[in-house]
Amino acid sequence: MDRRNQTRIYEFLLMGFSEHLELQPLLFALFLVMYLVTVMGNLLIILAFGSDLHLHSPMYLFLANLSFSDIGFVSTIIPKMLDHISSRIKLISYGGCLTQLYFFGLFADLDNLLLAVMALDRYVAISYPLHYAMTMNSQRCVLLVVVSWVTTILHALVHTLLVTRLSFCGPNIIPHFFCDLVPLLKLACSSTYVNDLVLILVAGTLLIAPFVCILMSYFYIALAILRIDSPRGKQRAFSSCTSHLSVVSLFYGTAIGVYLCPPSSHSDGKDRVFSVMYTVVNPMLNPFLYSLRNRDMKGALGKLIGIKTS
């Protein structure tokens, strides 16, 4: 049949977790709790940064933006997923799918860039401590944050606009719990050559460059720590990186599981677990990873909620 004679699709079916109906109430309760914990945890980080002058430093400025990004990240995905689980109607409109695609791309890319900026901040703090205040001054830090936001806003907009030029007239089933770019492109009736090219060139660069920046930063951080004579000095220098290193490991470990491991018909459950880890668990754990290993953050959070911390 000529594809031009087929009906244009105006909504998509998100399969998500629909195959096990008996687990729907449990999944609804689980994702609702995870969403509330994520929003509250990251909101506390933002409020602590705004209320405590001791946290008005580059690292915590970047952390506050990361927390805001994580709130936007989960808010793009989980509310719609909860609606689908509770109503058992898995449809999402064409406009709703594009909106979800845009904000998912924006906040995922923003997390990626902010983690690279935070790695660069740790590198300057450990390798050049005497020049840290001058190098990471407030103007430069704000500029790094603004550039990260503008870059991700434009990048997500490019992909979303390119999707609008595609025709969808065949199957409308997305085997996922949100509108991700790659599964959406597979449903297009028209050519996706331009989309694929931009995805490889632009998205590949935007994803690989921050990751390389993080690897290089920690390589030089390790060299700087090894040059420290005092064992206590080495421990203090390393402890200032552990929270960020934990977040980076969790973020890229799950992202690799989602996007770089080849999908298999026999590993749908495993693929879905990686996706949940990447989109839901990561943003929920980030506040705990930063607050539990950081004395200043624990003190600020304690003051915020009225609890004394040692």
Describe this structure in words.
- The protein contains ten helices and three strands; from the N terminus they run βααβαααβααααα.
- With 310 residues, the protein is mainly α.
Low-confidence stretches: 1-5
Strand composition percent: under 5%
Kindly name the structural category. Answer: mainly alpha
Order of helices and strands: EHHEHHHEHHHHH
The coarse overall form would be globular
Rounded mean pLDDT is: 85
N- to C-terminal distance: 72 Å
Strand order of the largest sheet: 2-1-3
Per DSSP E runs of 2 or more residues, the count of β-strands stands at 3
Number of helices: 10
Characterize the largest beta sheet: strand count, sense, and whether it forms a barrel. 3 strands, mixed
C-alpha Rg (nearest Å): 21 Å
What is this structure's SSE topology?
Blueprint: E1 11-14, H1 24-51, H2 58-87, E2 91-93, H3 94-127, H4 132-135, H5 138-164, E3 173-174, H6 181-185, H7 193-226, H8 231-259, H9 268-292, H10 295-305
Parallel strand pairs: 1-3
Antiparallel strand pairs: 1-2
Helix pairs in contact: 1-2, 1-9, 1-10, 2-3, 2-5, 2-9, 3-5, 3-7, 3-8, 5-7, 7-8, 8-9
A few lines on this structure:
The protein is mostly helical.
Q: Which descriptors would you attach to this protein?
A:
about 300 residues, mainly alpha, three-stranded mixed sheet, 3 strands, globular, disordered N terminus
